[in-house]
Each structure stands twice: as C-alpha cells, then as structure tokens.
Amino acid sequence: MTNSFHPPQRTLMGPGPSDVSPRVLEALGRPTIGHLDPAFVDLMDDIKGLLQYAFQTENALTLPISAPGSAGMEAAFVNLVSPGDKVIVCQNGVFGGRMKENVERCGATAIMVEDTWGTAIDLNKVKEAFTANPDAKVLAFVHAETSTGVESDAKALCALARENNALTIVDAVTSLGGIPLLVDAWGADAVYSGSQKCLSCVPGISPVTFSQRAVDTINARNTKVQSWFLDMQLVMGYWGGNSKRAYHHTAPVNAMYALHESLVALKEEGLENAWARHSKHHAALVAGLEAMGLDMLVAKEHRLPQLNLVAIPDGVDDAAVRSALLADYNLEIGAGLGDLAGKAWRIGLMGHAASKQNVLLCLSALDNILSAANAPIQSGRAVAAANAIYGV
After folding, report:
1. What integer is the mean pLDDT of 280-298?
2. How many CB atoms lie within 10 A of CB 129?
3. 155-185 pLDDT, tens per residue?
4. Among 34, 151, 235, 303, which is least packed, fewest CB within 10 Å?
C-alpha cells in the first residue's frame, strides 16, 4: 500500500531551490480554476506587470514560461538563433556550457570565450571575439554563475554587444531579485530566470523577457522556431495583453498563484531593499566563515551575495559534512560542480533564505561538525563575527 508523501522540514541553503515562504506555500493551496477563466486572465496580466518590475523593463514580451529555468534558456536560444548563425558564448562555469549546447542544437556555431572557473568573464576576451567574428549575431553569457558564485559585468557585456550590433542572451536564473538586474537600462535583449532562486517560489517556472529588438528578430525569422512549445509567437497568443487569449497550453495554475505571491512580496519589500538584504546577510556569513578559518574562493569584487563558494579545508570529507548537516540540522548546502567538485561548498542565501536566523544556524552547525571532525578551524568564533556585522 502506497502512503502519502510527507517531506521533512529543511532549511535550504544550497544553490536552489531556496526556502519558500509560508505565504507562497499557502497560495499554492488556493482553489484551482481554469487556465482561460477570466479571473486567471486578470492574474496573468498582474504577473506580467510584476515581472516587468522585477526585471526593471517595459518589454511587452515579458512572461513566465510554464517550465523551469532550463526551458527559459532554451526559449531564448531557439527563438533568436537560426541555423548558420554565429553566437559568442562566454563560459566561466557549468551554465555557459549549457548555452553552447543550445547554440549547437539550433544549427549555429558557438564561438567560445572561456575563463577560469571562479573568475568573472574577461571583457577583453569578448572584445577580441567580436573583432575576430564581426558577423556574430548574439552574445550569450551568465550574469550570476550558479556553479561558481561569480557575478560578471552584465552592463558592460550588453554594451559590448550593442557596439557590435549583436543581440544578448542573458542567464539571470540566480540574479533576479538578489542583485541589481536592469534590463532596459543595460539594453539586454533576452533574459531568463527561474522561480526557485531569489524569488523564493516553488521550482518549475521560468520568467523571461525579450526586448523589441529581439521581437523584431523573431518576427523576421525565415525558418520555424524548432520548439513548438517555446515558440514565442505562439506563446504570446496566450500571454498577450488583449482580452482574447488563444489556447496554447494549460498553464500550471496553482504554481502561477505561488509565483504571483512571491512577486507581490518582492514588490512589497522593494527591489533595492531585497538587494540590500542579500548583501547584508552575505557580509555576516562571510565574516563568520573567515573567522572560522575558512577561505572564500571568489575574489571579493566578483562574489555573489546570494551564492557563496567556500573552500573545503584539507582532509575534510565533503560528502560527510553535507550529510551531517542534513541529518543533524536539516540544513542543505550544495556541493561543488565540475572543476570544483570536492573542492568547494556552495552556500546559498536566496530570497526567503537570506536571513539572520539561517546565517547563524549555518555557521554554528558547520562549526560543530568541523570541530567534531578535527578539521583545522578556529572553533567558537564564527557566530560572534557574524553578530558583529549585525551590530549585536
């Protein structure tokens, strides 16, 4: 006999999903209505406006795709990239590699600009790539690289693309709601994100926005978009602004309630306040980790406040520490990926999880577990160092 599933209560401080606030979870349980119900159509309009606020854009083509951030990524590429195009792809972590895969599946050529994992995208390398490939149609890059905790200069990269008459595809999965992301001011063309990071919503939705330049490119295509589900010309028939909606797919109605609630919470807090909150708790976490004797792997000027890469001390068993955190404290942190597997922990401070309570829990739990394992740390100092940042 199969029993109902009752998940444990965790504190999620990994690379995502992040903690979901009680008000968002409550929204999930509201009565389901039809995806073409007039009340749901009104909600769609409200979600669009709230997403425009979150992205800081007036783009008409702004909507939540009914699938996770990976689908948002694919939507950007399949709509803007045609067979035979050249796309400059910046890779300084896992997700730049996924961009390359998308370019090639579109029948286009990926011109790779590669940087060491844990460092920001080198603007000079991008300039050189444009000089060598003046016919490049798109520049694709990750604003906040989830695998390394690095922020790259999205404003400067978008400016470089504009100077070279290229469109930009920007991965903002981990940046939206956590650090400044100014789509219109920076001139970004196609930007995608995810619901489960700094928005603190349940996983499974990908907010996207396309500039008018991007829309014009989509409309000028002479080949079909290779994905029917992600063809923006079709999707906009459902998410468009007029009262008559063309059926495209059955939206995940209750998940959209949750997204709406998370966006309402972001608007209530205010974007600038949300960015400042992430920064404050990041400063406290870093102070505590460094007081413990742990090293941060990303240079201070390129660190993401919402995703912190911490070097694992010599002789410490990565998996054993993470297992103990989960078993003894119901606390999840992330493992390193790719080149950083076994070398780093990824500690998230995203959305609802960016709180003093979580910072102090994480520091005290790490201190206890590492001390018990006789790791080379300075025990008993982390919480006090964090509290000094908080002014306690």
Report:
1. 98
2. 20
3. 999 999 999 999 999 999 999 999 999 999 9
4. 34
* Domains delineated in the chain: 21-268 (3.40.640.10), 270-390 (3.90.1150.10)
b/e map 218-241, b = 16+ CB within 10 Å: beeeeeebbbebbbbeebbebbbe
390: its two tokens: 């908080």
Distance CA 330, CA 353 (A): 14
Q: For the residues 114-130, what does the mean pLDDT come to?
A: 97
Could you list the residues known to form a binding site, using ranges: 346
Half-sphere exposure of 341 (CA within 13 A, CB side): 4
What tokens does 177 get? 């709601």
- Greatest pairwise CA separation for the chain in angstroms: 66
Q: What is the reported pLDDT for 243?
A: 59
CA–CA separation, 127 and 113 (whole Å): 10
The residues near 258 (Cβ < 8 Å, ≥ 6 apart) are 20, 24, 25, 27, 28, 195, 201, 202
| Residue 366, pLDDT score | 98
Return the bridge partners of 114, or none.
91
Render pLDDT for 126-160 as a digit per residue (tens, 0 to 9): 999 999 999 999 999 999 999 999 999 999 999 99
Residue 328 confidence class, pLDDT cut points 50, 70, 90: very high
CA distance 159 to 80: 18
Specify binding-site residues for substrate: 346
**Positive or negative, the Cα torsion across 309, 315, 318, 323?**
negative
